[in-house]
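Annual report, structural modelling task.

Input specification for the (2R)-2,3-dihydroxypropanoic acid complex:
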Amino acid sequence: MSGTPSRRPRVAVSRSGLPGEGVERLTDRCDVTAWPGTAPPTPAELAGLVRGCEGLLVLGSDRVDAALLDAAGPGLRVVALASMGYDGVDVAAAAARGVVVTHTPEVLADTTADVAMALILMARRRLPAATDALRRGAWGAFRMDAFLGLDVHGATLGLIGYGQIARAVARRAAGFGMRVQHHHPRRKEDDELSRWVPFGQLLRTSDVVSVHTPLTEETKGMIGTAELALMKPTATLVNTGRGGVVDEEALLVALRRGQLHSAGLDVMTGEPRTDPSDPLFHEPHLVVLPHVGSATEATRAAMVDLAARNVTAVLHGHPAPTPIPG
Ligand code: DGY
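The model returned the following structure:
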């Protein structure tokens, strides 16, 4: 099908008040119903919202499964995620129903790479512990051995996964005087930023390991006890990809045993984690952030704008600008 549909297509948006002008522009060409409120709808509420719609714009934290697709009905043609990761979508169920799924690569790569670098610096230099000491009035007389961390310059950075965000981290790491290597299971190529190495070699020889793989059946738990044991006791592990890729229990054990110098996580399993006594939040050599990789005003607006353009394109008979990789 091509051209403009005879009536305005109906589109559900899973939140109100999304940043930028993407939803407003979508409203120019579609009948948009946004979930009222900034709190997420329950699955039943989202199912009610999407019933009879041709398009659905959701956030990365929303779950799009077969039941939701069926609740929408046979007219649903596009699910547009305002996120790069699409592990919350049952892609096979969407494909079986002829529903195009899109995501938002590129627009968030640099912003997320900034947070990966921030975690590397914070964890390796133990900066949060230094800030905490100030708050406790514990900034004593100058000592040569106080607040010591490990250098970032001269360290070898190992990137697990080598997509847009990993390459953006590699560019930054070069500016910090790091050597960069990466592992990707299929694209076994060096480039001007980084050299490809086998997975085990990356774990054994990197001073900083930074995780940038999507969460799939293959990558779930790929950094567990055995992998952490291969890493140097002076190494730092950083994850800005998806929580399930790192086994958090195994990470806590490794940190407590001193098998690892430090770690930084922007992503966790079971987000959002709201228990203030969560062990992940209190481990001294672990820096934790509440999934803020893409959280700048400009980037969040760009994500919504791209998601909205994906919806409009598909519903007006054009190819989606950024479908999920087939
Ligand atoms: C992404 O886009 O995948 C970020 O993690 C935000 O959901």
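Residues 60, 83-85, 108, 293-294 surround (2R)-2,3-dihydroxypropanoic acid (CB under 6 Å).
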